[in-house]
Every structure is written in structure tokens, then in C-alpha cells.
Amino acid sequence: MAGRDEEFDAELADRGDDRPGIDEADENDYSALDLLDPEADDANDDDDDTDEDDYDYPEDATEDDIDLVAALYREDGQPAATALDLELANDLDGLIEALRRVPGDAGAVGVVSIDSDFFVIVRVRGPKVELFLSDVSAALDWPIARDAADFLGVDLPDDDDDSEPVGDFDLFADAGLSEMELEAITTDDDADPLESLEAIVDKLGFAGVYDKVASGFGLEG
Q1: Residues near 168 by Cβ (< 8 Å), separated by ≥ 6?
Q2: Which of 75, 77, 83, 159 is the most exposed place for a label (fewest CB within 10 A)?
Q3: Cα separations (Å) of 165 from 100, 138, 157, 207?
Q4: pLDDT by residue (tens digit) across 198-212?
């Protein structure tokens, strides 16, 4: 019996174990690895998607790019305005949180203008957040516009030529600025974005206080 066992062991030693192990598996042959971790491919796909999204995300606007970051509100019924930190021009979530802390009688309105190219208006009233983006094509180039488009759930345009305002056109309907008026102001080809923003602010009764804050950013009324 011992002789047969020794003969069998010797035969195995000569033949070797020809079963491929994990170390021998071709890196392109994923079957062995996937048996150990069937979610590995999905995780790698997710990482690729994340990397692609990060690569596609616009770079922050610089101080020179930022025209204005301000909050408009009413205190004891009187219009008021205050400048906000420049960093909020690249951070929609941060802007919304900052507006929640403004002591307005009925919430606050945040306005951000970038590169005299587009503006974002955010109105915060308790848990309700309404948003308007003057040019959806800005989402291709600027973080605050990209965040605004994501917040609104609108698709990114194919190129910069797809220029149009998007968002809650009725966000000031209760304040005397109708949806049709807001659309007319923001689609006026003869007015640049800063002029359109000034027209909106004027319609809302904040022209005086807005001009004071705007002058602090070097903008002329």
C-alpha cells in the first residue's frame, strides 16, 4: 500500500499541477478575479465615470471673473442688500446656505454675475429654493452655472451657441415680476446680462440698495 502511495505521489510530481492559478491568469481574462469579486467591474466602471465627470467639470471662476455676489432682502419692510463672499460665486450649495442665514422678512434672493456673460438668481424662502439661470450654455464653462443646471435638472447644451435662459421664470410672480416679463428681459438681445440683471432688480424695488453694493464690486449703475 505504501508503495502504491509513493508511486502515485511521484506521478503527480512529474506531471505537476496544470490548473491555472490566479497568479497565472491573464489580466485580460477576468473570470478568475470576477469569481472572487463579481462587483469589481462595476466598481471600475463607476470610477471611470467619476473620473470623466471630474475632468469635464469647469474650473472655478477667479476673482477677476466675478462681477458680483450679493443678497437682496427686506428688513422691517425696507429693501436691503449686502455683498457676499466671492467664493460663493463657485458654490451653489454654499450660496443657498448663506441665503438661509440672511435675516430677511420673507427669505432672501441671491444674485451672482460672472464675466459679464451670465447671471444666476436664487430665491430662498424657508425650505423652498427657486432658481433662474440666464444662459444655459454657461454651464459648459462655469461651476455655478453647471450646478444651477444640475439643480434644475436640465440637459447640458451641445455647444455655446445653445444660449437660452432656464429655470423658474415665475419665481418673482408674487413680487410683481411676471413670468412673461422675466422672459422678455432675459431674452432681449440688445441688453447685456448685467443690464438685464439691473432691470430685474429695479422691477423688484431693490435698485437703490443694489447699486450701492454693485459699486463696491466696481460696477457702475
Answers
A1: 123, 130, 131, 132
A2: 77
A3: 25, 10, 12, 22
A4: 999 999 999 999 999
pLDDT at site 56:
81
How far, in Å, CA of 53 to CA of 57, rounded? 6
pLDDT band at 135 (very low <50, low <70, confident <90, very high): very high
Residue 158: band (very low, low, confident or very high) from pLDDT cuts 50, 70, 90: confident
**Residue matched to cell numbers 450701492:** 212
Does the pLDDT value for residue 165 go beyond 50? yes
Sign for the CA dihedral angle at 22, 27, 29, 31 comes to positive
What interhelical angle do 193-203 and 207-216 show, nearest 10?
A: 140
56 Rama class: left (phi>0) / alpha (psi -120 to 50) / beta: alpha
For residues 66 and 194, the answer to whether their CB atoms sit within 8 Å is no
Cell numbers at 9, concatenated? 505521489
User: How many residues are there in the chain?
Assistant: 221
Amino acid at the residue 151: F
Cβ-based burial of 17 (10 A; exposed 0-12, middle 13-18, buried ≥19): exposed
Structural domain boundaries of the chain?
66-217
What's the CA gap between 100 and 94, in Å, rounded? 10
> Rounded to an integer, what is the distance from CA 166 to the centroid of its chain?
14
Q: In whole angstroms, what is the distance from residue 15 CA to residue 196 CA? A: 84
Q: Nearest CA to 120 among 98, 97, 90?
A: 90
